[in-house]
């Protein structure tokens, strides 16, 4: 995939940071506002795809590393499973941190209210784990397919 | 002959579809709502999250989300295995 024109690259430089920050905001506020791990991870993955398309697959190898992303993907899934097994004293996927007073352990105010970040028990941690997994999954798929397309084009030309 | 059989079967199934669409309950009035009422009443106090949808997805139906995450992981493994021999 060749790199695109200077206009596209300049606009990408302005925009991609905001897209990534917005995705992480959706992941972190999954227990208060609409959204969550899957949706925020998809937003961050779209930022990766934008970077890849505007810079081309050869140039974007410098700042999008496939090995690190696949490492993060396995780490996210393992963190999610470990959090699911941690509540096994009562049931599988039991919310053992909710209303306990510690990490994310404050009780929520009942009724319609804007919400407190420090509530939700194990739900924000699971959101972060799933978000990490989804964003690196999108990144790995896009990067692998781009390098495969490059390889096929080179093979056809030779 | 085949076309006639398929046509008769299609007409029977289509009439079933029409009858069930006519007999459907009015929109927005579910017949059983105990589950929904329980989630709306108790989700905030039990899980501590303000977003009831997220508390259903990650707490009450956490096993389903585990399956979704595993499906995504399997898709990535499949894509990487398919293009395994491609270097650069």
Query: Which range best describes the helical content of chain B: under 10%, 10-25%, 25-40%, 40-55%, 55-70% or over 70%?
Result: over 70%
Q: Overall 3D geometry of chain A?
A: elongated
According to DSSP, the number of beta strands of chain B is: 0
* Silhouette of chain B: flat
Strand content of chain B: under 5%
Rg result of chain B: 23 Å
What is the number of independent domains of chain A? 1
Biggest interface and residues each = A-B, 48 and 31 residues
Could you give the count of β-strands of chain A? 0
Distance between the termini of chain A: 17 Å
Biggest sheet character of chain A: none
Poorly predicted runs of chain B: none
**What average pLDDT do the residues of chain A reach?**
88
Q: What series of H and E elements makes up the topology of chain B?
A: HHHH
Number of helices of chain A: 4
Radius of gyration of chain A: 19 Å
Span of the ends, CA to CA of chain B: 57 Å
Quaternary structure type: heterodimer
Order of helices and strands of chain A: HHHH
**Helix content, binned percent of chain A:** 55-70%
Low-confidence stretches of chain A: none
Furnish the topology, listing elements before pairings.
The complex is a heterodimer of chains A (158) and B (88).
Chain A: H1 6-28, H2 37-59, H3 66-86, H4 123-157
Chain B: H1 2-22, H2 34-47, H3 52-60, H4 62-82
Helix pairs in contact in B: 2-3, 3-4
Can you tag this structure with a few keywords?
heterodimer, A: 158 residues, mainly alpha, elongated, B: 88 residues, flat
